[in-house]
Here is the input.
Amino acid sequence: TNFILTLQLTLYPLNKYIVIVANIISVNDFVPDDLNPVSIAKGIALRMKERRLELNQTQQGLANRSGVSLGTLKRFESSSEISLKNLLMVAVALDATEEFRLLFSHQQFTSIDQVLAMKSAKKRKRGRNV
Here is the structure.
């Protein structure tokens, strides 16, 4: 686990020695924004709102077109909380479903060796605890 440790160092002269006292101010879990689920959700909500405004739609208009309640849209834009079903309904109304098709798509290959290795590998049907 990566984390950020914030220290406050204080130097105290003591006879011919210097005593260093370290106080832990905070320990924060460090998760880059592109790996942080909260940041990802906020980004999706922000892009949805920008798309809605580009199309000159009100929240009420989008609610009517998508079949999602106005309260749900307001909550999504303010707190980034929405069910997957409602998010998909909004995406259909905003003509933004292509991104969902790419969500869990196959990995991008960087060499022909990777393509050949994947073709020869047995396709897994279930996971295994390691």
In short: The helical segments are 37-54, 59-66, 70-79, 84-93, 98-101, 112-120. The mean pLDDT is 79. The first strand starts at residue 3 and ends at 14. The chain is about 45% helix and 20% strand.
